[in-house]
Amino acid sequence: MSSGRTKADDSELSLIGIYEIGKVLGSTLDLDKALHDVLNILSSYLDMRHGVVVLADDEGHPALAAVTGMSLKLARTGALKYPFAAAAKVIATGSPMLVADPAAEPLLAECVDDGDDLDDEGVSFLCVPIKTTDKPFGALSIERPRDAAPQGFERDLRFLTMVGTLIGQTVNLHRKVIADREQLMEDNARLRKQMVHIKPTAPVRGLEDVIGTSPAMAHVFAQVQQAAPSKATVLLRGESGTGKERIAHAIHVLSPRAAKPFVKVNCAALSESVLESELFGHEKGAFTGAIGERKGRFELASGGTLFLDEIGEISLTFQSKLLRVLQEGEFERVGGTKTLKVDVRLVAATNRDLEAAVKKGEFRADLYYRLNVVPIFLPPLRDRPGDIPLLAAHFLAEFNKENGRSLGLTHRALQTLERCAFPGNVRELENCITRTATMAKGEVIDDEAFSCRRETCLSSTLWPHHEHDEPAAMPLPTFAPAPPPPPAADDEADPSERERLIQAMERCGWVQAKAARLLGLTPRQIGYALKKHDIPIREL
Q: Are 337 and 420 part of one and the same domain?
């Protein structure tokens, strides 16, 4: 800073300089560019010649990181005669260095003796450490005219010290980012070795969109293939999210009506008046807003299949109207008098206990019998854990395709999924995979990536478990609670009992105390049972 400026001027310029340098350092992760730009800013605020930033290498020796007056590449070839010994002393001691006459300083003598014009131009050498709160790991130095007053040097030294601190914070952050990235790459490389490659099974014709190889799903597939060619009404039963709509579509595809429309309606999403108009259509002027004739879903599905989802939610009044269509195959549009006949194959679905609803008078018995011609029960996901790896791989493959990713699942990740109850069934599993994949930082999903492992899975509150007993991620199996009497020494082990023990231990993460509570046993009894059946304890 020129000696002609006042103290107030220097103070204001220092603040502006620090502000500009802070903006540069915070605007990019390109460290080389940031350091070069900082030196350029210093050149505009200080009467200086060369500016240099050196950072300690892996062995602790100072190495050029940024220079002014020439390219960094040229400087590193030796074109810049830099006093590394002086910079090393500043880094080692953590104290600034001010040399008014380089010729009188042995650490700078080499630069003078080698013909560098450092001394001939009458310049002084100022150098400050680059550090944060730890040991210095670099130095910032400038050369400036020697004719400045001593107090000018002191102000410049304080200014450079602040700049050195800013540089230190930026370099430290940059190194942490690099270290984190390298650690992430190492973790991904390690996890990639643990990735499970799941080979999809050959799909059943007409059921390509329904994934499952479990005995429960094999039974469903057999029922669908048996019922599809007929005209019989099919009632799909099962919890929400078990794939009833896909099964309904498969029935249509496998039927002689496959070339005709497949029309679906969610009965729970519409009010009674709107549902009547949707299903039966309406005539022009039938109600306010009916500006024209409109065909209903029954007409649109003529010759094909009509899928009525959530059939258990319709009102008693509308049940009687639907019953007539099913019995007679005819109806009138809302506001119309003309009777229309249709040929429609009906597939209905519900997650309600219709039998209980009939007993309570909430659902017409005659409609129930009309719908419940061929009932097909879809198993909840917790009853088919063997299908979870296939489903998870399928949903992850869809996510990868849509988002240009190449994520994979580890064996531990699949184990975590298989231990979940999934009250939302396949739909919840899909959401879980999508959510976890979206938030994945690397290319591999391990067990720690799931919300349930970080106790942030809100749907875990819906999972069945003993309050204050089992963790939310461990569903209750259906075991007989009463402990069996101790068998005689010569009793043979019961294979079914062994399977129940293994299933309980797997769902409880191989923690004996938790499995004992699930089975209604004491820890001592479950320990005995494990030894009896020769079941080794697994480490997870």
A: no
